[in-house]
């Protein structure tokens, strides 16, 4: 199951179970943010050209555990680049598809992560991701 769909299902269940109106409001904002991430036709500044799930899959393939925060952002480790004590130094915005590491102060989109991971230039990484999209990440 796709990580975003899994997060949506968990959030809907939490909203249903929660009786606190402030908590429900926060969960609804998080749910709205994830809905926008799954619907790329919505206008948003600085959106990545590639689906966020590619970045999340790359993080998981490298042994990182994904943690959904209450504001809709996703925390993860920054393996294989460096270790962190909390294993939550990398922050992913599922709406824009961009990431930022709070430890090493690096960030970017899916292409920048893929380029750093495989030692490619940005344009070569973009071509490789387009091939990867053709092979198994069709929407």
CATH superfamily descriptor: Zinc finger, CHC2-typedomain
Count the domains: 1
CATH topology title: DNA Primase, Chain A
Strand order of the largest sheet: 1-2-3-4-5
Radius of gyration, rounded? 15 Å
The helix count comes to 5
Low-confidence stretches: none
**At the first level of CATH, what is the class?**
Alpha Beta
Taken as a percent bin, the fraction of beta residues is: 5-15%
Can you write the helix and strand succession as a string? HHHEEEEEHH
Could you give the distance between the termini?
A: 14 Å
Q: State the total count of DSSP E strands.
A: 5
CATH architecture annotation: Alpha-Beta Complex
* Major beta-sheet overview: 5 strands, antiparallel
Mean pLDDT: 78
Helix-residue proportion: 40-55%
Describe the global form: globular
Which class best fits the helix and strand makeup? alpha+beta
Description:
A 5-stranded antiparallel β-sheet has the order 1-2-3-4-5, with helices on one face. The chain has a single domain, classed as Zinc finger, CHC2-typedomain (DNA Primase, Chain A, Alpha-Beta Complex). Helices cover 48% and strands 11% of the residues. It has helices at 3-17, 21-38, 52-61, 110-118, 122-136; strands at residues 67-68, 74-76, 90-93, 98-101, 107-108. The chain contains 5 helices and 5 strands. With 139 residues, it is of the alpha+beta class. The longest helix has 18 residues, at 21-38. Helix 1 (3-17) packs antiparallel against helix 2 (21-38).
């Amino acid at each position: 199951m796709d990580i975003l769909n899994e997060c949506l299902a968990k959030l809907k269940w939490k909203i249903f179970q929660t009786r606190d109106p402030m908590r429900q409001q926060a969960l609804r904002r998080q749910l709205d943010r994830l809905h926008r991430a799954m619907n790329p036709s919505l206008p948003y500044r600085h959106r990545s050209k590639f689906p966020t799930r590619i970045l999340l899959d790359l993080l998981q393939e490298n042994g990182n555990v994904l943690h959904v925060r209450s504001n809709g952002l996703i925390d993860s480790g920054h393996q294989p680049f460096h270790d962190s004590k909390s294993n939550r130094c990398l922050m992913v915005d599922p709406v824009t598809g961009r990431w930022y590491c709070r430890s090493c102060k690096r960030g970017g989109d899916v292409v920048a992560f893929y380029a750093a991971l495989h030692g490619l230039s940005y344009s070569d990484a973009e071509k490789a991701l387009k091939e990867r999209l053709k092979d198994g990440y069709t929407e």
